[in-house]
Design brief:
mainly alpha; 8 helices
Length: about 140
């Protein structure tokens, strides 16, 4: 019997392991570079996305139940705090999710995993938005 997504490395395996996650990350940033709705969030990133791509790849590998590559390479991470230097409101959150949705749609993942992944990715995206809004309110 197959394990549920989120159980051990079931999500990591459903995403195609490291090669599958790399393809997802590459397509995600391709969309960030090309989708008009993503222009603002693209502007929040460095021109050279090499390290940014690697960080998302490393994070997703561990977050989906694979090896904790981010911690090994970059140290501990708390997603909202890692993004505290940028202002994230609903449009920025939604643009990020749009790029991810487009990238996920292209992957050879099972349809139920695609839906699961987008539901789960909403959580850190929303936490970043909430964290950012609280910071902005505290600064006012």
């Amino acid at each position: 019997m197959a394990r549920a997504y989120g159980d051990g490395d079931a999500s990591f395996q459903a995403a195609g392991g490291q090669p599958g996650i790399q393809r997802l990350v590459d397509r995600f940033y391709d969309y960030m570079d090309s989708v008009p709705e993503a222009a603002a969030i693209r502007g929040m990133h460095p021109k050279d996305l090499e390290m940014t791509r690697d960080k998302l790849y490393c994070f997703l590998c561990g977050w989906l139940g694979g090896e904790k590559l981010f911690a090994k390479k970059y140290g501990p991470i708390m997603i909202p705090r890692a993004h505290e230097h940028i202002d994230i409101a609903e449009p920025e959150r939604d643009a990020w999710l749009l790029c991810m949705e487009k990238a996920v749609a292209e992957q050879p993942y099972a349809e139920d995993f695609k839906a699961y992944l987008m539901r789960e990715l909403f959580v850190p995206a929303e936490r970043c938005r909430i964290f950012s809004q609280r910071r902005i309110e505290a600064e006012q």
